[in-house]
Design goal:
Layout: E1 11-13, E2 16-20, E3 26-30, E4 38-40, H1 50-55, H2 70-80, E5 86-88, H3 94-102, H4 104-113, H5 115-140, E6 146-148, E7 179-180, E8 188-189
Parallel strand pairs: 5-6
Antiparallel strand pairs: 1-2, 2-3, 3-4, 7-8
Length: 196
Amino acid sequence: PISAGYRREVVQEGGYLSFRDEWGVGRRMPVDGGLYYDSFGEPLGGEVDAAEIDAFPWPDATDPGRYAGMVEAARQIAEVEGRAVFVGSICGGLSEGLFKMRGFEDGYMDLAAEPERARQVMERILEIKLAYWDRVLGELGDLVDVVGEADDLGGQDGGRGQGGAVVEGVVAQPRDVQVGLVPGDDLVEAEPPETL
């Protein structure tokens, strides 16, 4: 669901259709043969400080317009059509959000060298998600059968290397993790596990 205050304006630039989503992330798709919109133009890319991240116009998860007709639609699905009600998230996961807001290069550099900046962005995304789920689940209650959350670390092989081994080709091995980035907790120095 999108905020009532957001208006998508798709423009054609060169060989692309493009727009900025309500998070300020640029999206573009080739006019010829395009099947989906790729992200570009990260709104918090480059050198940003904590004050700039705080001042960013983050989406408003509490906007009532975002939820208009939600209960009626869920009742239609559950009570009239007899189907399960699935509710998806307001956005991708915390790391996916970091990379969309900061870009892959800046996001990964933040994780490695500036974890407090990565944490600040991810915590803001988490606050938005929590406000969204509080509202959705508070209004829909027992009408909801399944909720969906997902994340994406940006790997290109789904975490499966050659031969289908799950641990090959992943973005980071457990032995490489030195600092935990758990939103809401203090940074914790951790001994990495020997194996998965």
